[in-house]
Amino acid sequence: MKNIYKIALFLVLLLSVNKTNAQNAPMTCLTPSLGVFDGNTFSPISATIPCTYSNVINISPSQFAVGNAGTTPCIRIIVNPTNANAASNNSIAIGEGSNTNIISLCNSFPAPCFTFVPSSTNYTFSLFFMDPSQGHGYNLCNTNIAGNMNYTIASCYNSTPITTGVWNNAIAGGCQTVTIPANTPIGTVGYSISPAIVPTASLNSNNGDLWLDTYQMPQGVYTITYSFNSQGTPSCGITVTRTISITNPYSATWSPPAAMCANGACVNLVPQITGSAGGTFTAPAGVSSNSFCPALTGAGTFPVTYTVGITPTCGSSQNQNITVNPLPVANAGPTQSL
């Protein structure tokens, strides 16, 4: 399987109490289209893809948040309000599963932190494309002594908090970790592919992403269905589909050489290829370095296979028979008297 990784985020910075209250209301479901992206750069690509494509393919919602509507599992932290020197004194590191810091917010923007924690404001930070099967953690730290701040962690789709507490800034250099258990209801996703492909050719990471390895996908048109349930109150759900086409550029057509004698010289089979070059010839007997040698087989009919491609799925093969004639026997008949 090719290398795959993605995390997407959405930052909402709200400065007024009214807007913060609106954001804290449950999000609804957005019905997006499904995009086709390069798995390394996340740039949009054509839905007609050769099986030789070097990177994995990412299928995911083309929009994951518009206004107060979303399409993927989402969790958020709300700090209300931050203290007067939060931007210089505080940081938030958010973890998922065994990765304890998938993104940071602190005062060293742009690296290694994503953005500032603002001062003296009502602040909401939302993360989409989260994996609900993983546990999540918020590591809340302060550099110097500052006033405490109230926080709430909740699903983006539910106004009922997962947990609330006080970000304790009473001790300089102190940190506290807030843990969100795995399978907390922050939304669930599902993908299906028709026709089915081998399990190793796809990975659904439970967060809204589907990854496809075209090397392992036979040529054809595939229908991909994406479903999302917010698990909110009230709950909403969406189901969208799209098609992609996998093409196979390889052809293994070739022509067998004319019948040869059992004592004939080896024949190079490469010039017999009429399809894609660069493959190999194999046979139970008679083939050596893409040449057929009748002296190795003797008389008979012998199957030879030409194979070309990256994998058995992303490739082609063709069998042909090569005939080797026996040596003629000279016979003048019985001795005669003249």
Give structural notes.
This protein is mainly β and 338 residues long. Helix content is 4%, strand content 41%. It has 2 helices and 27 strands. A 5-stranded antiparallel sheet has the order 1-11-8-13-14, covered by helices on one side. It has a 4-stranded antiparallel sheet with strand order 3-5-18-17, with no helix packed on it. Strand 24 (287-288) and strand 25 form a beta hairpin. The longest helix has 8 residues, at 17-24. The radius of gyration is 32 Å and the shape is elongated. It starts with 9 loop residues before the first strand and ends in a 13-residue tail after the last strand. The model is unreliable at 1-23 (pLDDT under 50).
Architecture blueprint of SSEs:
Elements: E1 10-12, H1 17-24, E2 28-29, E3 34-38, E4 48-50, E5 57-61, E6 65-66, E7 69-70, E8 74-79, H2 86-89, E9 90-96, E10 99-105, E11 123-128, E12 136-142, E13 149-155, E14 163-167, E15 175-180, E16 188-194, E17 202-204, E18 210-212, E19 220-229, E20 237-247, E21 260-261, E22 267-268, E23 280-282, E24 287-288, E25 291-292, E26 300-309, E27 315-325
